[in-house]
Amino acid sequence: MIQPIKRGFLSAFLILLISVAVAQENGKYALVIHGGAGNIARESISEQQEEEYLNKLAEALKIGEEILSGGGSSLDAVEAVVKVLEDSPLFNAGKGAVFNIEGKNELDASIMCGRTHNAGAVTGLTTIKNPISAARVVMENSPHVFLSGKGAETFAYENGLEVVDPGYFFDQRRWDQYRQHIRDNVNRRRGYRDENLKLGTVGAVALDMEGNIAAATSTGGMTGKRYGRIGDSPIIGAGNYASNLSCGVSATGHGEFFIRNMVAYDIAARMHYGGQSLQDAAREVINVNLVEQDANGGIIAIDKDGNIVMEFNTTAMFRGSLTSEGEREVRIFE
């Protein structure tokens, strides 16, 4: 009796392995990314600058596609994609981060796994090269979700992440923006908003062949931010959210409003509890609710069926997407 049981178990195990292999072979994947949204005039960006942005977005998509098409996880894909964007001075994250009121770069990031609903976030980093990787080690190697400042940096260092001198993040274009901000500050009143102060937050959402969704967001925040200001990007539910039950979302825009409205989670909740489609949920949140509050920004998202949405209420959003069916695009304006 023992031998038949062993054979039966082995046969079932082999069938399971074959089923998984076939599922992965026939499985679909999708990836969507953003590099910030804002009210940008088309003529304010030269053809060369536009080409640079589109090429970098395409490069990031390619990195993510290599992971997903090879059967890799959505978590690995979004982390790798965001690292590409963090390493580029074109975007307000990592190397291209804006300066706070003290002339320093303070970096925030978050990541979430839609399968487990586990998440990690960091804020106020000044020496960790890739904040999105710091967010991931918080998620996977600690009992916590959100770490800040020196504590987050110490934990990242203990987990082997690359530490850099704060000068690594210096970018002349961002420094010029900061200095202009200081010059103009005397003419600003409380509540003054300038879209260029925060343009460039980056993010990625992916669906892998096993049906798992992950989302990641990274930013340098707002030029001239003070008082230890934290925006929506590292806040789970506001600037980032993922659930296999509904969708994954990465947001970019006026963070205070995205926090107040819990934008990323609101979209997912409308789908999970209200039965809305991803497109309808995103449109209501971004182009109805936020517009009524005079709040600018946008989101990228993927639902559990692989549908992609890139919704924004500004004149532009740096964005790109691809699917296993061969669909692919990188765009800035409508």
Brief account:
The chain is of the alpha+beta class and 334 residues long. It has helices at 2-26, 47-69, 74-86, 131-141, 149-158, 172-184, 255-260, 263-272, 278-292, and strands at 30-38, 107-113, 119-125, 146-148, 202-207, 213-219, 240-242, 247-253, 297-303, 308-312, 316-323, 328-333.
Descriptive report:
The chain is α+β, with helices and mostly antiparallel strands and 334 residues long. It has one domain (29-333): Glutamine Phosphoribosylpyrophosphate, subunit 1, domain 1. It is 38% helix and 22% strand. It contains nine helices and twelve strands. It has helices at residues 2-26, 47-69, 74-86, 131-141, 149-158, 172-184, 255-260, 263-272, 278-292; strands at residues 30-38, 107-113, 119-125, 146-148, 202-207, 213-219, 240-242, 247-253, 297-303, 308-312, 316-323, 328-333. Strands 4-3-2-6-5-1-11-12 form an eight-stranded mixed β-sheet. A four-stranded antiparallel β-sheet has the order 7-8-9-10. Strand 3, helix 4 and strand 4 form a beta-alpha-beta unit. It is globular and about 50 Å long.
